[in-house]
Amino acid sequence: MASERGLHEGNDCFARKNAVKCDTRISRALGVCKKLVGHFSHSWKKKEALKKAQRELNLPEHGLITECPTRWGTKQQMMERILEQQRALSQVLSENRSTRHLVPSWQDIEVLESVNKALKPLQDFTDALSGEEYVSISYLLPVLRLLNTQTLAADEEDTELTCSIKTKVLGYMEAKYEDPATQTLLNIATFLDPRFKKDYIPKEQREEISLRIKSEMKEAQPAVAISSSSVGAAVSGAEAEPCQSATATSTKRMKKSLGSLLQTSVTSPSESSDHATIEAEFNSYILIPKIHSEQDPLAWWGIHKVNFPHLSKLAEKYLCVPATSTPSERLFSTSGNVVTCQRASLKPNKVDMLVFLSKNL
């Protein structure tokens, strides 16, 4: 037991040392990138020399990208651009003895290539999940599965550093979404998306999610009944309006017909009929074919809300949740543009109105 414990401790210590070593290599490579970008951004002569070298080497005439802490993906874009312009940068910096120390070494290039290979595929997912004009919450389960099975899966051509980064990213994602409440939210949102339904819900959780959705459908039933009764009242009021003068003049009380009595008894649903209605709606939604992955689920629900009144209420509740915090961060940026030093005396309700108009006009 003691030797086995010592072996585990030795493995953990070795893993920690490798992690520190990788972090040190990445920090050094990022420092080189920042120095390069800073050097060329503060000298127009160097910028012109870089353009000349790009034309001589038949490279794209792209400028270097500065990392911005508040913009996702800029660090990876900065590294990718330096790798693209590596030969032009080396040619310009090697011409002057005072700038030769800025030329990235082959070790730095290897680190940048390894990091870029691991992070570049994540850029497209980040951009897609950061949108706010379409449904994004239901994409999370499909994206997580794709990351585990393909994008961040181990490849034979990956370096040790690339594999380490992929493993850390997957571990972070699993810890991020391991909360049971978050898992339930993602499962229900994915089920309510007619593009996915049960495809990405784990088999062992499908029964539990089905019961949860049926329970919420039952809770939403009073709201559905109220909305339908208000529509019926509006229609009956519109039909009764032309004959109001005739009924007002007649003082004779009308007796209820058998049809009206039967209608009253039918319109008071029992608990068993409610359960059957919910079961039928739930099963009908499962049986209909899924829509294409490029179609808009909100447009689909707008058309089929009459056929699925209870599920459409749940879709309105869950599919409006954003997948990331980017939309809220954009609101803070918009608020910063509204409340400036020249407009610092605005009241909170005015700020809310201006931000709303800025985001919705």
Q: Would you write up a description of this structure?
A:
This protein is mostly helical. The protein folds into 3 domains: 2-129, no CATH class; 131-232 and 276-324, no CATH class; 326-360, no CATH class. 70% of the residues lie in helices and 0% in strands. It has helices at 2-41, 44-56, 74-84, 86-94, 106-129, 140-151, 160-176, 180-191, 203-219, 221-240, 244-249, 258-266, 271-287, 297-304, 309-318, 326-338, 348-360. α1 crosses α5 and α16 packs across α17. The chain is elongated. The chain starts with a helix and ends with a helix.
Task: Encode the helix/strand succession as letters.
Answer: HHHHHHHHHHHHHHHHH
Oligomer designation:
single chain
Provide mean pLDDT, rounded: 82
Tell me the distance between the termini.
69 Å
Quickly count the helices. Answer: 17
Domain tally: 3
Structural class: mainly alpha
State the share of residues found in helices, binned by percent. 55-70%
| Biggest sheet details | none
Overall 3D geometry? elongated
**Radius of gyration, Cα only, in angstroms?**
31 Å
- Beta-strand residue fraction: under 5%
- Contiguous low-pLDDT stretches (5 residues minimum) are 1-20, 231-251, 264-269
How many strand segments? 0
Q: Topology of this protein?
A:
Elements: H1 2-41, H2 44-56, H3 74-84, H4 86-94, H5 106-129, H6 140-151, H7 160-176, H8 180-191, H9 203-219, H10 221-240, H11 244-249, H12 258-266, H13 271-287, H14 297-304, H15 309-318, H16 326-338, H17 348-360
Provide key terms for this protein.
disordered N terminus, 0% strand, mainly alpha, elongated, single chain, 361 residues
